[in-house]
Amino acid sequence: MRGLSIFFLSILTQVSSESLHAVIGLIGHNVTLPCRYDTQTHGVLSFCWGRGKVPTSKCSDTVLSSQDGAVQFRQASRYQLLGRETDGDIALTILNAQWSDHGVYGCRAEIPGWFNDYKVNTHLVMEEAPEEQPVTQDSTPATDVGETTLENIGNVTAEGSFSLQGKFKASLEVGNIARMGAIFCCTIIIILVYIFRRRFQPGRKLGHLNTSAVDNIYESVPVPE
Description:
It is built from 3 helices and 9 strands, in the order αββαβββββββα. The chain has a 6-stranded mixed beta sheet with strand order 1-9-8-3-4-5, with no helix packed on it. The chain has a 3-stranded antiparallel beta sheet with strand order 2-7-6, with no helix packed on it. The N and C termini lie far apart (197 Å). It is of the alpha+beta class. Strand 4 (62-67) and strand 5 (70-74) form a beta hairpin.
């Protein structure tokens, strides 16, 4: 009776250890079906992958199997183990997955003892990969736009500097003309003043001389006693 209870308990443990996962794959891309066990507890185990749910023993329609850390069977090179088996990562990677790869896959890790195997059932769903938007030749990269904008800004800056230089030169020319005009006017005024003084100064000197002569005459005539 005790042995029968242990038998049914082992069956319940086996059923509870099975799990079902869903993975979505894209046509033409690689897809990975996860499966992992605890190597610290069980060490490196033998395992297998097959199409369909995990049966009572081994795997149905086996696509890959490993014995003591070494691959013993591989149905096609498309089925790869890219994880670290020493860490218990025995995920199955299907390269260049296609519509025909959809369905249920079973992973079994063989744990010593009755009905102790670790089992994972994965349902692979395949979908079309999204189409990539083609890049048209009319589209201009952002860098070209930025370069064009910088060139335009440089041209505008250069034109503005040339315009300012032209205005500055024009203002200098106008200032020079005004300065020359002022110098010319001052020169004319000085010449006129000089001529005016030359014209009237001899008359004033003659009058002064006449007055001095008369005074001398009066002084030279003796006064009668």
